[in-house]
Amino acid sequence: MLTSHRKQAILAALKRDGQVVAKTLSEVFGVSEDTIRRDLRELAVDGLLQRVHGGALPSSPAAGDFVQRQQISTDAKSAIARKAATLIAPGQVVLFDGGTTCVELARHLPPSLQATVVTHSPSVAVALVDHPGIEVVLIGGRLFKHSIVTVGAAAIEAIGHIRADTYFMGVTGVHPTEGLSTGDLEEAYVKRALVARAAEVVVLASAEKLNAASPYVIAEATAATMLVVEGDTPEAVTDPFAALGIAILRA
């Protein structure tokens, strides 16, 4: 089999099964595991999959920059944001991640809500400028222009002084065994710091993020208290998360 044909077959298996294992692929194609690992490396360089120990997972299309991500699953993000907004009670202190779904969440907060939103996202802060009852605390630091969020030591230092009721997390990958992940190392550190400062962690996960992986791990999947997913997400996809004790909320 030509290398190009083998790669297409690998991608087809990945789409069908949600993951591929190098050892199994080597047996199926009658080639060495080294050959399969080379194929996986090259496919990963092309952004077509994410390598993990022993094989590969789908690469999240949500790893693009902020402008690109605004065009992905817009209706789903709006529905997820609307449902997530119902989780915020009056008087709470909540952490909002950066990302397009969290901006939508800010826009869906009811006008009567009195609460405090702490965020490292200027986009979220601007979305709340005209909200009469929301106190906004903007975390400073170096602006990471790809995602329009602040990162770095200054951001992590400021986060360490906050105790929040809930952290609404945006990710690019959510997987029951490979955990919560994102496409930038500094963002991963900031998200990890935010996880540590909240009593509950709610992950906003549209379909393209589920069972996908990105290069930088934020935390194990069990760091999430709840996943907010699209209403038509199959139970076969959510059951592995529910088995870990993570609540599933459908939009």
Automatic annotation (TrEMBL):
One of the Pfam families matching this protein, by short name: HTH_DeoR
PROSITE patterns listed in its UniProt record: HTH_DEOR_1 (PS00894), HTH_DEOR_2 (PS51000)
Keywords on record: DNA-binding, Repressor, Transcription, Transcription regulation
Domain of life: Bacteria
Parts forming coiled coils: none
The keyword GTP-binding is assigned to this record: no
Domain (HTH deoR-type): residue spans on this chain: 3-58
Name listed for the protein in its UniProt record: DeoR/GlpR transcriptional regulator
Organism: Dyella caseinilytica
Lineage of producing organism: Bacteria, Pseudomonadati, Pseudomonadota, Gammaproteobacteria, Lysobacterales
